[in-house]
Design brief:
This protein is α/β, with parallel strands linked by helices and about 650 residues long. The protein folds into 3 domains: about 150 residues, Sandwich (Immunoglobulin-like); about 350 residues, Glycosidases (TIM Barrel, Alpha-Beta Barrel); about 130 residues, Galactose-binding domain-like (Jelly Rolls, Sandwich). An 8-stranded parallel barrel has the order 2-14-17-18-19-20-21-22, surrounded by 5 helices. Strands 3, 6, 7, 9, 10 and 12 form a 6-stranded antiparallel beta sheet that branches. β24 and β25 form a beta hairpin. The longest helix is centred in the middle third of the chain and has 18 residues. The N terminus is likely disordered. Bound molecules: alpha-L-arabinofuranose. Alpha-L-arabinofuranose binds next to loops.
Length: about 650
């Protein structure tokens, strides 16, 4: 219904105008490169929401591997005799473990793990297990480890023995004889007596770069193919916490993964209509792994740290704000993080990094203090960080917040404050309707150029259905022409959120969806990918009738030149429901190539989405268009986004 209304509106809007072929002329000054496009211009924002880390990017297949959820057996189906204990634990910061006793029950005694909405297994691939165990028995205690499919059939099995009274690490692999998306992992004690088990872990052998205990390869591949220039992590609201105790503390996320203390994820209970009581953070994906991911993908790392305020939506009491004179440890966390990322391997925190296998610095250049903070609570805390950071690390760029909304009281208060405080960039967030995105294509044309640059750190067009449909993607594509045109001011951007598990999401839309075996890229993903891949090196002026193209006749456009490939690249969105013939006047070029390559994202159904059953319902298609002369005429179909590349 909404789509129909939208189409009718577009139809009426376009009816008043005669369709004269060639009456629309885009003039592109191909020889007048403007502002450089920053390498960070198109990035990604990772937040541990929607099972983004555990159950998503982090390759671990066992949920609650350390028995540290508030209910320590969540995720586990115990059978026979199983209790939870914490005396003389294997890991001081994850002290709970399971004690399994077997006295001849027919099933044996043991534990079955349900994974993250099941365990995805692929035939022909190996799965590496780790179990820490000990026994007070004087004999070897036999454990059977099994992969069990969704029909309760055993599709892979192995045995191992516990022989030591001290904690001992058992490792090995199992290869399933068939694939399953919702398998379980079962551990059974076969010998009469008692064993303790902890940190029961299972990873695919094939992780990103085949790193043991690494990241899910298909998800990282999807990120790599976006060519992000910057990665903002680890949130979002998870940075702030619902109270200061549950805020994200990066120091808990480095060192041996077994001993990183679990934290309840605030998205566990944040949305009452989407409760996810089994959502915790194991921090197996921690700050070392984020920095390494950035390095792998050639993206600048942008960590976000707590500014000493818990989420201001959720927590308004005094105990949710660190008093100004007690902020020292928070400021120290920021300074220590820079040492962790950039310090020599001989420094305290540089050594932690080196011991984790990365003696060379990560060369971090950006830091954000606070997420969506607002009010004087924020503006009196931020300067304390800025002063300390400027003194010790004057080259690090500091990102401040403009609050949770793209306009209004808090936004209007914060921008001038950020100028006064001297933030290098100001983070703006907008989750708004497609119509809002259309009207905001000129948003940055009139921004003050003095002072901080803009980081559009979280944005997404929210349709009424909140689907990742072509409708949202087209609105974002049109709006992004305005980001690109203003690349002198807008230095970084990232869609949000990034990831979502089909069966465990709290928020939508999201850029990349997945189940335990499959990744589904959204039309919004392709828009981001097209902009980032063809971001060019400098802006070029592009106008229609002497004006920026920001919605006239339903058209939006921006242009860049790529000095490396020697191409002029146009991004054009036709958001109306009639095709548009456009004459391209490439001023400043004596000879225009006689053909151009176009990547086209289009559909006549605004509601079209990609799904696990139809993952390519809407994807960009490449075509070549031929030019007759120096002022070629091109036709953009209705509801179409183009990236057009022509050689200079
Ligand atoms: O992206 C989801 C949430 O939206 C982020 O955690 C927060 O910063 C914003 O409100």
């Amino acid at each position: 219904m909404r789509n129909t209304l939208f189409l009718l509106c577009c139809l009426f809007a376009s009816m008043g105008r005669a369709q004269v072929p060639g009456d629309l002329v885009f003039t592109i000054d191909a020889n007048k490169p403007g502002a450089p496009i920053q390498p960070t211009m198109y990035g990604v924002f990772f937040e541990d929401i929607n099972f983004g880390a555990d159950g998503g990017l982090y390759g671990e297949l066992i949920k609650n591997r350390s028995f540290e959820f508030a209910q320590p057996l969540v995720g586990w189906i115990p059978f026979g005799r199983v209790t939870v204990a914490d005396s003389k634990p294997a890991f001081s910061r994850n002290p709970h473990y399971a004690q399994i006793s077997y006295s001849g029950q027919l099933t044996g005694s043991g534990l079955e793990n349900e994974g993250f909405r099941g365990i995805g297994l692929n035939k022909g691939e190996k799965y590496l297990y780790t179990v820490y165990s000990r026994t007070a028995e004087s004999k070897a205690m036999k454990l059977r480890l099994e992969l069990v499919n969704s029909n309760n059939e055993i599709i892979g099995s192995t045995e191992t023995e516990v022989k030591s009274a001290d904690w001992q690490k058992l490792t090995g692999s199992i290869e399933p004889k068939s694939s399953d998306m919702k398998a379980h992992f079962r551990l059974t004690l076969l010998t009469q007596g008692k064993v303790d088990v902890d940190h029961i872990s299972l990873f695919p052998e094939k992780t990103w770069k085949n790193r043991p205990g690494g990241l899910r390869a298909d998800l990282v591949q999807a990120l790599a193919e976006m060519h992000p220039g910057v990665i903002r992590f680890p949130g979002g609201c998870v940075v702030e916490g619902n109270n200061l105790g549950t805020r994200y503390n990066w120091k808990n996320t480095v060192g041996a993964p077994e001993n990183r203390p679990f934290n309840e994820n605030r998205w566990n209970y944040e949305f009452k209509h989407r409760l996810t009581p089994d959502y915790y953070q194991s921090y197996g994906l921690g700050f070392f792994e984020y920095f390494q991911l950035c390095e792998d993908l050639g993206a600048e790392p942008l960590p976000v740290l707590s500014c000493g305020l818990a989420c201001q939506f959720a927590c308004k009491d005094d105990h949710c704000r660190v008093p100004l004179d007690s902020l020292g440890s928070y400021v120290q966390d920021a300074l220590d993080l820079i040492e962790f990322a950039n310090g020599p391997a001989t420094s305290k925190w540089g050594k932690v990094r080196a011991d984790m296998g990365h003696p060379a610095p990560f060369n971090m250049k950006l830091i954000a203090i606070g997420n969506e903070q607002w009010g004087p609570e924020y503006t009196e805390r931020l300067p304390i960080f800025v002063k300390a950071l400027r003194e010790k690390h004057p080259k690090i760029q500091i990102i401040g917040s403009s609050g949770p909304f793209p306009d209004g009281k808090e936004f209007d208060y914060l921008w001038p404050e950020m100028r006064k405080i001297g933030a290098d960039l100001v983070d703006e967030h907008y989750y708004r309707s497609p119509q809002w995105f259309y009207t905001q294509a000129a948003r940055y044309d009139t921004y003050d150029r003095k002072g901080p640059r803009v980081f559009a750190g979280e944005y997404a067009a929210h349709t009424t259905s909140r689907d990742n449909s072509f409708e949202s993607a087209l609105a974002e594509a049109a709006f992004m022409t305005g980001l690109e045109r203003n690349a002198d001011l807008v230095h970084m951007t990232s869609y949000a959120p990034l990831f979502a598990h089909y069966e465990a999401w709290q928020w939508r839309p999201n850029l990349i969806w997945y189940n335990n075996q499959q990744v589904v890229l959204t039309p919004d993903y392709y828009v981001q990918q097209l902009y980032a891949t063809y971001k060019g090196t400098h802006t070029l002026p592009i106008q229609m009738n002497g004006k920026n193209i920001t919605g006239q006749e339903g058209l939006y456009a921006s242009a860049v030149v790529d000095a490396k490939t020697n191409e002029v690249v146009l991004k054009i969105a036709n958001t109306g429901i009639v095709p548009q013939k456009i004459k391209l006047k490439l001023a400043g070029l004596s000879n225009v190539a006689r053909s151009a390559t176009v990547l086209e994202l289009k559909s006549d159904r605004l509601s079209l989405v990609n799904t696990p059953n139809a993952p390519e319902a809407i994807v960009p298609r490449e075509k070549t268009i031929n030019f007759k002369d120096n002022e070629p005429e091109v036709t953009l179909d209705a509801l179409t986004f183009w990236v057009l590349r022509v050689k200079r």
